[in-house]
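Hey, I'm writing a tutorial for new members on how sequence and structure tokens pair up, and I'd like a real worked example in the thread rather than a made-up one. If someone can provide the structure for the chain below, I'll link this post from the tutorial.
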Amino acid sequence: MIRTLIFGAIAGYVGKKLYDDGKLTEFKDDLVARYNDARAKLEDQRIQDSPAPVVTPATTSGASPLAH
């Protein structure tokens, strides 16, 4: 139990120090930028990999549909 308390105190101290120095904000900004880049690359890849839409020509004949 005492080891847990000591580790928690050290982690809290180091975390506060990183927060005060602005290192956590830099880390968060870098993480968000990497996430947005990866998401954009996946979206581009999804667009490139999707099949071309099939266009069916409209019929222009004057024939009416058959009654059932």
